[in-house]
Amino acid sequence: MSAPLRVEGLRKRFPTPAEDLVVLDDVSFEVPAGGSLAIMGPSGSGKSTLLHILGTLERPSSGRVELGGEDPFALPAGQLAAFRGRRVGFVFQDHHLLPQLTALENVLVPLLPRGAATSEGEGRARALLARVGLENRLEHFPAELSGGERQRVAIARALVTQPMLLLCDEPTGNLDARSAAGVVDLFLEVHRQDGKALVLVTHSKEVAARFDRTAELRNGRLAAPGSA
After folding, report:
1. Which residues span the domain enclosing 65?
2. What's the DSSP call for residue 70?
3. What's the average model confidence in pLDDT over 191-216?
């Protein structure tokens, strides 16, 4: 399988009065199309920083990220934002749904900057909401949905632009065990069927065990869980 996501020698340092704070140090890995990687590690280990770099929300200090064979950080700022909107979908611990919009309208939001909230885009949004089991909740507002339902809307929103890479930052952290299991089922089903690369950050060993590979971020480096 091809590897839509390649990371080589990634480093991230933040300057401090004493010395640079090293958050990521020589991180390298690949995720193939339809492949999944779960990243674990203690709070403050740099997991979210890594996801932000993969999603082009933050620039690395050095190293290279390739998505679909392209280095997004070589693009001008305007083109980088457009690249992110096309290629990357995000799901966070907090669903970040807009309370004044219905489930359907929330899913359509990522299409607005591209002028793509057309009948075709709406059809795709409706199909995605049906795919995550919410075909009867299209006109409901977030306050009228359960926590698991809101997170399923967030999954549909992340997929509506047909991204190549799906990034998930503790997406089950606010859910009960049953809802969390359902959300993970959705992630794994969708990314494999659609051939997307999936990278998820989690504290849950149970969630991580269901992914193709698991790595632990320690001292700025990725390693197999439990390795020295």
Report:
1. 5-100+162-223
2. B
3. 89
